[in-house]
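Lab notebook, bench 4. We co-purified these components, and the gel suggests they stay together. Before we commit to crystallization screens, I want a quick structural picture of the whole thing.
Request: model the full complex, all chains together.
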Amino acid sequence: MTHQSPNAGESRLDRGKRVLAEIDGEAGHKVIAALQDIAPDFATYILEFPFGDIYSRPGLDLRAREIATIAALTAMGNATPQLKVHIEAGLNVGLTREEVIEIIIQMAVYAGFPAALNGLFAAKEVFAARGLSLGEQG
Amino acid sequence: MTHQSPNAGESRLDRGKRVLAEIDGEAGHKVIAALQDIAPDFATYILEFPFGDIYSRPGLDLRAREIATIAALTAMGNATPQLKVHIEAGLNVGLTREEVIEIIIQMAVYAGFPAALNGLFAAKEVFAARGLSLGEQG
Amino acid sequence: MTHQSPNAGESRLDRGKRVLAEIDGEAGHKVIAALQDIAPDFATYILEFPFGDIYSRPGLDLRAREIATIAALTAMGNATPQLKVHIEAGLNVGLTREEVIEIIIQMAVYAGFPAALNGLFAAKEVFAARGLSLGEQG
Amino acid sequence: MTHQSPNAGESRLDRGKRVLAEIDGEAGHKVIAALQDIAPDFATYILEFPFGDIYSRPGLDLRAREIATIAALTAMGNATPQLKVHIEAGLNVGLTREEVIEIIIQMAVYAGFPAALNGLFAAKEVFAARGLSLGEQG
Amino acid sequence: MTHQSPNAGESRLDRGKRVLAEIDGEAGHKVIAALQDIAPDFATYILEFPFGDIYSRPGLDLRAREIATIAALTAMGNATPQLKVHIEAGLNVGLTREEVIEIIIQMAVYAGFPAALNGLFAAKEVFAARGLSLGEQG
Amino acid sequence: MTHQSPNAGESRLDRGKRVLAEIDGEAGHKVIAALQDIAPDFATYILEFPFGDIYSRPGLDLRAREIATIAALTAMGNATPQLKVHIEAGLNVGLTREEVIEIIIQMAVYAGFPAALNGLFAAKEVFAARGLSLGEQG
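Here is the predicted assembly.
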């Protein structure tokens, strides 16, 4: 059974918590925690809709989903904290560092060189924090 | 030999023409043709940089590259003609219609419901023009 | 009991249908219908999350919510069909045409004159389709 | 007489100074001051056009105008300093913290979850700087 | 006396009308006229602020100002009608068609190939409507 | 021979290095260096395409090209590091500080006051780092 498979009787919130933990790990938990004193309902929505509903859908695997998210956040260029979380998430679900870099480089074509450049520097920070050299897994 | 493999001695322009034909087919040729009387050099750049340089890179297969592009163009929301070309391209390189729709739906999370909605209607037009019902390949 | 009040035992989907009908009327139904042959699940998400969850929240009345949405869609400038639906929605929940125009004009300050200009022309189309002269209610 | 009412014989610049002081308070003055050694004419334009012309218009009250501005700046996602100034401004003209949070949460629907998330964290900083707990006025 | 020089005693509105006529010609008048039944005050603001204040400033000539505007509107990618007006305006104040095309091509670097492509097609329409072949003045 | 003139037999990469050095100086070299351990191929693309291909084109002088780039990056509002590099570049190729400020102020019309304001503060930082008062060359 793959990670995305819904469990019988599982609520959207429980499924969202499970999928968030699997994809985003520690970084996801920090976002949820940081919302508790300002907008706890929004933390619930994040668990329920993006993770409980969307990432749990069976039609696309998590690797493909993270390719899509890294591409979009790089291209939009105004959500660097979320891009970093999803570069981490991409590595967590099986993308290599080289693949993450390929996705970001490609965005130069669609959103311009500054968007790609800022995406690469975000990746550089994430990779450095994980402490492995480029070329090693995750 | 995969489609992306560089051929020895092939120029960037020739490689770009080959990769464009493989990915975008007729839709790509139309864009190149439409530029001839206004900016033929830009047509050359499109062949050379996005297709001759980027899509020809070996680190990510074309299926993954089109996932990234469909995601980014849906999220940006201001390049509908190019989104349609790349929905076609995605189908050409092996994405199913269901996968295209999954990618676009996911963009509601990152770029909002209107971006996803407009992306879905663009996909609907592309699918209709190809004349097959949803569920059939390509 | 205001329109936003949750009914005991009502599902998110049912609440979303009720709130959509109240806010968007015919225009909302058309969007939901147009999705049925391409992405029916996304129609469900629209009913459940924006309408069943967000617009149903008690902390802000629908008039204020439509002010926010008209402002945002005008400023973003890449979602004209949705802007028109929400200009209609704004009139449905009690904004006057003059108020809609004030909101859009104000966006020139934050998103530039072209965004405001295109928003005003969208409003002109919506008003014309409703067939009343400026100054009359709704 | 409301704050927005034009005073007879008042220049655009004087009216803008009066309205800026009323809406933005100290934060507005800091922006104007910071421009003096780089672009003093632009400081004058800010006073004259957004404040002297737009916010002074009688067709929409300041509470509604700040709802519109907070929504737009959250959705655009690339103007955090100005979003913070207008979260303050919203509180100054009568929005509660809960209402500010509702507006920002709603933007997840139109501009995506990252835009709303970054808006909420901006609000958290503004609220912390004002030193009152959530739930207290302003 | 250059076109931008302020005339003694001229109001912002009169100066704006004069500068708009000089830069935008017929296309500018159409925009102003189209606003009369929906938001006549906004027409006045367009004359007063962009044209009466900004384009009238002496520190940059109109050719340079139109280079800036064509670049920005191409890069933003969500204001095609205004981009067309300013391609016309650029030709009116002395840019050649080749220069307009150079500016738009350059935007591929900063905003991506789709933005440049859509800008080039907008230019193609403007040039066709003016009825001269590429290479002739204006 | 002007700086943009292609030298016979020069490769795109060599021409790009020469043009980058001329336009961006130290700031450009830092970007190229920072990419070496994360995406050295992307550094090559920056040299080859924007600088070797686009900025080397003869149809528009470098002063005009930097006007276009400063305008676009100010309007886009999500690429501050690149905006700073190009404010420097503009000064390097002959724009005065006053002209840079005029370009940025003008963007208030097309992209809103926050975009212009943030652009002015970026310029203020660049000018301060260069250590000359406003009014002096470069």
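The CA atoms of residues 24 and 111 of chain B lie 25 Å apart. Worth comparing against the SEC data before the next meeting. Chain B has two domains: 1-59, 61-138.
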